[in-house]
Amino acid sequence: MQENKNYILKIDCSDEKGLIYRIADVVFKYQLNIIKNDEFVDRDNGKFFMRAELSGEVEISAFKGTLEAMLPANADIYVAEARKKDIILMGTKETHCLGDILLKHDSDDLNANILAIVSNYEDLKSLSDKFNIPFHCVSHEGLNRAEHEAKVLEVLSAYTVDYIILAKYMRILSSEFVGHYEEKMINIHHSFLPAFIGANPYKQAFARGVKIIGATAHFVNNNLDEGPIIAQDVIHVNHEMTWKDMQRAGRNVEKNVLSNALDLVFEERIFVHDNKTIIF
């Protein structure tokens, strides 16, 4: 007996009466089983969002075509067999986020295949080698941003990827570069931005006597660190902590927030709408 396949169905469209009935009817006609289902209606904008996990065996294009015929004309429908995503990690020198992802990948706790690591320094090569991940150093020395990005894009073009993860990649990317991977690049940063930018934000935060530090994971768009937010977290700090204590604590938050965000992304739990995210 052939084992059933698992599928992810995501729909966003104008809200109308009877949407769930129509969708469920199509699912039933194609002899699929709904394992899990979530819906949300944005009443202010009249938008309907739905994510379902399905089990069975289906010809995806026919199933999607039937759904399109039954839903509003502006419906955005995603349906695909559940699978591990193919990703590339980009970093500079810091290892806490990248190392955490590599450990999860090595223990098969990451719902993704790491195809390569790309960096503008050689510092991460030894870590990459320990996990037998291909490593590409694309130095920025002596190059302007456009020249460097062209070389990075040349390396990335050799791979077919679902997502690029900026695991503390400390170079500002141009809108032209970001445009190649719209809604496919994920970044992590400390939540002090824009108050504490540039070198050593934790030292700046310490000098200001902050009481909370945190991290934000988000999709990258042309507005630098203002892309749709995926996950955030904070912890409390106090006057007894040095800036190095804050840095250590902050790095733990960063890697945890990025890990949580990647789980959500790789499991297709996110809708992006008007620079915001709806997450099931």
Largest sheet: 7 strands, mixed
- Tell me the radius of gyration: 21 Å
* Amino-to-carboxy terminus distance: 33 Å
Number of strands: 13
Order of helices and strands: EHEEHEEHEHEHEHEHEEHEE
Q: Quaternary status of these chains?
A: single chain
| Low-confidence runs of at least 5 consecutive residues | none
Structural class comes to alpha/beta
Number of helices: 8
Q: What's the shape? A: globular
**Quick check: average pLDDT?**
94
Strand content: 25-35%
Helix content: 25-40%
Cross-sheet strand order for the largest sheet: 7-6-5-8-9-10-11
Q: Can you give a write-up of this model?
A:
- Strand 12 and strand 13 (276-279) form a beta hairpin.
- The chain is an alpha/beta fold and 280 residues long.
- The radius of gyration is 21 Å and the shape is globular.
- The chain is 31% helix and 31% strand.
- The chain contains eight helices and 13 strands.
- The strands form three sheets. A seven-stranded mixed β-sheet has the order 7-6-5-8-9-10-11, sandwiched between helices. A four-stranded antiparallel β-sheet has the order 2-3-1-4, covered by helices on one side. A two-stranded antiparallel sheet has the order 12-13.
- It has helices at 19-29, 60-70, 96-106, 125-130, 145-156, 175-178, 201-208, 243-266; strands spanning 5-14, 33-42, 47-56, 76-81, 85-91, 112-119, 135-137, 163-166, 185-190, 212-219, 229-236, 270-273, 276-279.
- Helix 1 runs antiparallel to helix 2 (60-70) and helix 7 packs across helix 8.
Helix/strand layout:
Blueprint: E1 5-14, H1 19-29, E2 33-42, E3 47-56, H2 60-70, E4 76-81, E5 85-91, H3 96-106, E6 112-119, H4 125-130, E7 135-137, H5 145-156, E8 163-166, H6 175-178, E9 185-190, H7 201-208, E10 212-219, E11 229-236, H8 243-266, E12 270-273, E13 276-279
Parallel strand pairs: 5-6, 5-8, 6-7, 8-9
Antiparallel strand pairs: 1-3, 1-4, 2-3, 9-10, 10-11, 12-13
Helix pairs in contact: 1-2, 3-8, 7-8
